[in-house]
Write a structure and sequence with these properties.
- This is Glycoside hydrolase family 5 protein.
- GO terms for molecular function: hydrolase activity, acting on glycosyl bonds.
- InterPro entries: GH (IPR017853), Glyco_hydro_5 (IPR001547), Glycosyl_hydrolase_5 (IPR050386).
- The protein is about 40% helix and about 20% strand.
- The protein is α/β, with parallel strands linked by helices and about 325 residues long.
- The chain folds into 2 domains: about 270 residues, Alpha-Beta Barrel (TIM Barrel); about 50 residues, no CATH class.
- Helix 1 packs parallel to helix 3.
- The two termini are about 20 Å apart.
- The N terminus is likely disordered.
């Protein structure tokens, strides 16, 4: 995968930050918004990203929702891939909302396999621009995930032994779980992790993560003079401990310490490694968001890890935060 170099022009700063990255083009995974797979609208968004120098796109999709609500879903995916191929865009198809649990692991695994096999019927055998991310952020136990993921990859390989497959670890694509894994016995795999450390900063004020992240106005990097008081809601939660330790976790050194470890794992095993999500909520202030994206992007680039910012538009959206232009 080519690592794109773009220029972030920060509204409140004079400096230009050069970062290599891809972007998550979100929306079609948001089942609670009943998203329509509008092919024309999606192509327009892809063109906007391309015009801003972005050539690598991760497309989160709720397979369960779109397979059930749109009989033309596989054909639309085929047309999206063809469109991206013509324009030289790399596309990651990421399977969200898979509903995989310990209780339904066998049944749901068969469903996930069936869905991928249906899509493979619509994809060219030698597609060079498309990557299949079999399951986003699995939360089943490591033992169950090892069994399940082996089944999914094996069945995909029986149908297509060349297409690139992206796979992460349990505990929601945890880099720590990934570092404990042994690589799978398959070719052309890309291992992925998500990076949102420290969560006390990146998820501040996000309602869906609970009271532990109720404290807002947390700066990045850590600056004692700018630190807010701990929210009363966060007391006696994990957020209280994370807030106390933020002076150790909220800086470039801590970012590199974590990412360097998973980079070392990939180097030891000789496998490809991506970070398919990193980002920070719009609840953080502008300068802190820019500082964080700069630091994480810098370290990912240092260790040659292709990465995808979460997300172009949405609760973590970078559109409007920074202007992007091709270098």
């Amino acid at each position: 995968m080519i690592f794109i170099s773009t220029i972030f022009s920060c509204k409140s700063q004079n400096s230009l930050v050069s970062i290599g990255y891809g972007v998550n083009l979100t929306g079609l995974e948001r089942t609670w918004e009943f998203p329509e797979f509008d092919l024309g609208d999606l192509k327009k968004k892809l063109l906007i990203l391309e015009n801003n120098g972005v050539k690598e796109i991760r497309l989160p999709l709720s397979f369960n929702y779109h397979f059930e609500s749109d009989p033309h879903f596989p054909k639309k995916i085929k047309r999206v891939i063809a469109f991206c191929s013509r324009r030289g865009l790399k596309l990651v198809l990421a399977n969200f909302d898979h509903q995989l649990t310990e209780e339904n692991a066998d049944q749901q695994t068969n469903k996930i396999i069936d869905q991928w096999l249906i899509l493979l019927d619509f994809l060219p055998k030698n597609a060079q621009n498309v990557y299949l991310e079999i399951v986003n952020e699995p939360t089943v136990s490591p033992t169950t995930w090892h069994r399940v993921s082996n089944q999914i990859i094996s069945e995909i390989r029986k149908k297509n032994n060349a297409i690139s497959i992206v796979v992460g670890a349990s505990n929601a694509n945890s880099m720590f779980e990934l570092s404990r894994m042994e690589p799978y016995p398959f070719e052309n795999l890309i291992y992925t992790f998500h990076y949102y450390e420290p969560y006390i900063f990146t998820h501040q004020g996000t309602s869906w993560t609970g009271d532990q992240h109720a404290t807002v106005d947390i700066p990045y990097p850590y600056d004692e003079r700018k630190m807010p008081n701990l929210s009363p809601k966060s007391k006696e939660t994990a957020g209280e401990v994370n807030f106390r330790d933020y002076n150790k976790t909220g800086n470039l050194v801590a970012v590199e310490d974590k990412i360097s470890q998973i980079a070392a794992w990939a180097k030891t095993h000789g496998v490809a490694l991506w970070c398919t999500e990193y980002g920070v909520t719009v609840n953080a202030d502008h300068d802190s968001r820019v500082n964080y994206l700069k630091d994480v992007g810098q370290i990912l680039t240092k260790y040659a890890i292709p990465s995808f910012i979460w997300e172009w538009e949405g609760n973590f959206g970078v559109k409007g935060l920074i202007e992007i232009s091709s270098k």
